[in-house]
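Assess this one:
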Amino acid sequence: MARADVLKKLLLTYQRRDDRAFREVVALIIEEERRKHHSVLANELEQIINNGQGEVPARNGFTAFDRPPVDADKGVPLLEVRHPDRYFDDLVLEPAITKLLERVVYEFRSWEVLEANGLSPTRRVLFCGPSGCGKTVAAEAIASELGLPMLYVRFDAVVSSLLGETASNLRKVFDYAQRGQWVMFFDEFDAIGRSRDDPTEHGEIKRVVNSFLQILDNFKGRSLVIAATNFERAIDPAIWRRFDDMVRFEKPSSDQLRRLLEKRLKPAQFTTTQVKELVAGLENATYADAERVCLDIRKLGTLEGRRKVEPQDISDALERYAYRQSIFERSVGDAVPMVDKE
């Protein structure tokens, strides 16, 4: 059964208070997680369902139908509740990074054990590195592995033109998060975490940083906070110190590109030579660039009713990639922040 169908059936059985059907759906989910070799998660789900009576209690009074907070000025939601469907097996990263992410998940799942021994799990992680290199998908994978929804914080809404409203919006976000358990993801974190010593910033950013530090220190929710930035050198040093761990994501190596292409081109039929041609044409590309090229190839084959990748598909996809890159480079030009050059 597709994941979407499972989720729909799970909600319907819960709504109808059909305990037997609810447990049957949960059993399907546990079986699926075991097939994916997510034995820890499967065991936890099994323990939960065996210890309970089929009813899923709300965490800290939160229900899935609570409306997200909105910006008072623009009236737009400050965050999105997402349910990612990516797992570590879907990622192609450096082994050291994968190991670190798995350790974060392991500690978080072992919260009670650590707490009973006077220790705390990793609760705040800073992701940094160039755009398109896996920060967001890694956060999604962590949420999926933990079986938690993601709170995706919308910085275009959080940062307000009204004096003092940005700090107020941040408080609203954390007040909302306090009522449940999540993976909180702050993308483009430098929008509020910029250094207070930056001469180009005005007094408001200093107030925002101070407010964020205070809110983060006082946040007692049992959630994992992940912040991502492309410009880590712009982050205030005091904020750096608030994070338990940092992960830097880089552009993929040739071998990582090859593995990613082989994953993302499926179920299309392709050859080793075609993958090598793509790797050569995607030198210095990001993970996002490579995924977009794979989508171009698969969509063309789908529209033409075939699964086999033709030589012209490779040429066309690389040509489109080169064209996009030329537009990007012309539009950015000298405007690329110095902090991104290493």
User: Anything to note?
Assistant: The mean pLDDT is 85.
